[in-house]
Design brief:
single chain, Rossmann fold, SH3 type barrels, Elongation Factor Tu (Ef-tu), domain 3, 3 domains, six-stranded antiparallel β-barrel, five-stranded parallel sheet, 29% strand, globular
């Protein structure tokens, strides 16, 4: 009997994952990851752990807790704070998966006898003859492969996504049929392990507020803001500007601490070509050629051409530095890999 440690988050998806694996005959261990939580925000860790314990008790499986506060603070929180400080727009959930769930967590459970790691992600792993592929979930509306592009072949070899072949409605139905205690708990959409947070208020605990100038697209001073590093491209609130129209951030200069805004993004801000950094292949190698890509979660896939670490879109885009760009094959099923916009 092979042993699977399931990351129980307190939510219904991971709970159903544990239920499915137990029915399939695995020896299932429920594991809760105790992440870092700031003392200045209302966090859900205590409640999440209680829900996870209730699920494990209901399924009659062992339950363990792993304290990864230090790793989470260092590898996730400090990372995205520094990225914002430098003017980039990082995705902390991508780093959380890489450094915590499929990094430090796997190291812990492997030492404790795990053959596999399982999570409640909406994704699938395809076992080929001599390799593995990360493929989109059956429920394309809930697909979470965008956050998993940093995984490697070695990660896929010991990873299970038990609900990747199910629709969300089926997951809820299974939870009710199994009488899981959290069957009706709403889905969470917040920052990994932190729930719903005001990102700007959070960042202000680590990055100073310094008043800067807001300019319009013609370079005229039209208002003020409290720090260019707190804003992302496309943001339309949080700054003071004299304009009857709704304004969007179209550019920022962290060295000068200035924002540029406009009621519509000017065409000269859009580009076809973007350079990638931190490139990572999950399903084999990323070779030069045609792919489908997205740079935001749940965004429609767009055709691109990849060559020597850069991507060329068929139509111009306006992408913030630091955002994750994920490459899919032309059949829209397999995730090839990705990188961050440089």
């Amino acid at each position: 009997m092979q042993t699977v440690f399931v990351g129980l988050s307190g939510g219904v998806d991971s709970a159903v994952s544990a239920y499915v694996l137990k029915k399939q005959g695995y020896r299932v261990v429920g594991a809760f990851i105790q992440g870092w939580e700031p003392d200045f925000l209302p966090c859900t860790g205590v409640r999440d752990r209680l829900e996870a314990m209730r699920v494990a008790a209901h399924l009659n499986i062992p339950f363990v807790t792993y304290n990864l506060e230090e790793e989470y603070k260092r590898d996730v929180v400090d990372y995205f704070v520094e990225e914002y400080r430098s003017g980039k727009t990082p995705n902390p959930d991508v780093m959380c998966n890489r450094a915590i769930k499929f990094g430090a967590f796997w190291d812990k459970i492997k030492f404790d006898g795990a053959d596999f790691l399982a999570t409640g992600h909406y994704a699938q792993v395809e076992n080929n003859t001599d390799s593995y592929s990360l493929t989109v979930s059956q429920d394309t509306n809930k697909d979470q492969t965008y956050f998993l592009w940093t995984l490697q072949q070695s990660d896929l070899a010991h990873t299970l996504f038990p609900i990747g072949n199910l629709l969300k409605d089926d997951v809820r139905r299974l939870a009710l049929e199994a009488n899981l205690p959290n069957a009706k708990r709403p889905d969470s959409q917040g920052l990994c392990f932190l729930g719903h947070v005001d990102m700007r208020a959070f960042l202000k605990r680590y990055i100073p507020s310094i008043t800067g100038i807001v300019r319009n697209s013609e370079g005229k001073e039209v208002g003020t803001h409290d720090g260019a590093w707190f804003y992302t491209i496309g943001q339309r609130h949080g700054f003071d500007a004299q304009s009857p129209e709704r304004q969007y951030v179209i550019a920022k200069d962290v060295e000068k601490n200035e924002l540029t805004i406009a009621d519509l993004q000017p065409k000269d801000e859009f580009k076809k070509a973007y350079q990638l950094e931190r490139i990572s292949a999950v399903s084999g190698e990323i070779s030069d050629g045609a792919y489908m890509a997205r740079y935001r979660y749940r965004q429609a896939l767009m055709p691109v051409t990849y060559k020597d670490g850069s991507v060329l879109f068929d139509t111009p885009q306006h992408i913030a530095e630091g955002q994750s760009l994920v490459l899919h094959d032309l059949n829209l099923k397999k995730v090839i890999g990705g990188g961050t916009i440089q």
